[in-house]
Design brief:
The chain crosses the membrane at residues 20-42. Helices cover 86% and strands 0% of the residues. By secondary structure, the chain is mostly helical.
């Protein structure tokens, strides 16, 4: 019985698995935060482009006076 307890105390495979799990969770969190920031920047850029195009389309549709 004491041999079983001694092996259990020396076994570090569970700790390694937990460390790998924490590293994977941190990497996933970093990817999600980066994708969120990139999505916000892209949304702002495309909104600006759409506003510019709407402004150009509004001025091009007005008839020219001689």
């Amino acid at each position: 019985m004491s041999n079983l307890i001694a092996r259990f105390v020396k076994d570090e495979s569970g700790a390694t698995a937990i460390e790998y799990g924490l590293i994977a969770a941190l990497i996933a969190l970093a990817i999600m935060m980066g994708a969120s920031q990139l999505g916000g920047a892209l949304n702002a850029k495309f909104s600006g482009i759409a506003g510019t195009l709407n402004g150009v389309a509004g001025t091009a549709a007005a008839p020219a006076t001689p």
